[in-house]
Design brief:
Helix content: under 10%
Order of helices and strands: EEHEEEEEEEEEEEEE
Strand content: 35-45%
Distance between the termini: 98 Å
CATH superfamily of the domain at 132-263: Galactose-binding domain-like
Length: 265
């Protein structure tokens, strides 16, 4: 029963356990026990606080995007939000990203809308050099080896450029923009008794080889090679390089009117 005023307090009335009508006593660890709180002004105990912290619905928190409710994550650690409407609203999957939030764009690609989402694609067909390039002989970027001279047209579409004297490994280079894709290469020039074997290199890699030997001189000959893949778009170095000759040829001559590249895929 409760201790009355002015009543002598006995040692048995002072305890560390949560006991009704007893005075609280600290134990050897300087702690004492209380019963779980029931009223709003009851003292809180450790289990009350930890149990509350472990709740997944504390204060009515919900996973669904619900107005005026606190957020709790679901079993996968995710929670739902309404679609953003103002600056500062949280982004959700399925809403547009700003440029700074998008993944890095691959060099030589552009963004294109696909199913209302940004997707990487090749540069558009209107880009310079995309589909068809004709390279005239005198527009070379550099001469790697040899002496090259112009010959006026004679029963030819245009004048020609030729290495004179003709030596093995004579070469000259051109630069042109090529979009990523598959190309056919066409060399228009002269075949003859002194024609050599010419390699076409793109960025230092041999992509086509043409034998320009013929017992009799023939002009405006078309040498064509298809299926040449350009993996990435950009300005490419295109080199024409003498590399050997036919067993019956008397020289290593390259005499050509122009070089053409067109994209097929």
């Amino acid at each position: 029963m409760p201790i009355a005023p002015n009543e002598q307090i006995l040692a048995a009335d002072v305890v560390a356990t949560a006991t009704a009508n007893k005075i609280a006593l600290r134990d050897a660890a300087a702690r004492t026990k209380f019963a779980a709180p029931a009223a709003a002004d009851d003292a809180a105990i450790l289990s009350t606080v930890t149990d509350h912290a472990a709740l997944t619905t504390a204060h009515g928190a919900v996973v669904a995007a619900t107005a005026s409710k606190m957020v709790v994550r679901d079993a996968e650690g995710q929670a739902k939000f309404a679609a953003p409407a103002e600056a500062g609203d949280a982004l959700i999957k399925g809403t547009a990203l700003t440029i700074t939030e998008m993944a890095a764009l691959t060099t030589g690609k552009i963004w294109q809308g696909v199913a209302n989402r940004p997707s990487e694609v090749d540069l558009p067909a209107t880009e310079s050099g995309e589909g068809h390039i004709t390279i005239l002989p005198l527009s070379y970027e550099a001469i790697g080896q040899g002496t090259w001279e112009v010959a006026a047209p004679s029963a030819e579409l245009v004048g020609t450029l030729t290495n004179n004297p003709p030596n093995d490994l004579d070469n000259l280079s051109y630069e042109a923009y090529l979009a990523a894709g598959t190309y056919t290469i066409l060399l228009v020039g002269q075949h003859g008794a002194g024609g050599g074997i010419v390699d076409i290199d793109i960025e230092g890699t041999e992509v086509a080889t043409f034998d320009l030997y013929n017992a009799a001189t023939v002009k405006n000959q078309l040498d064509e090679d298809a299926g040449n893949v350009i993996a990435t778009a950009g300005i490419k170095t295109i080199t024409l390089r003498l590399h050997g000759k036919h067993a019956s040829s008397a020289a290593y001559r390259l005499q050509f009117n122009y070089l053409v590249l067109w994209r097929t895929a």
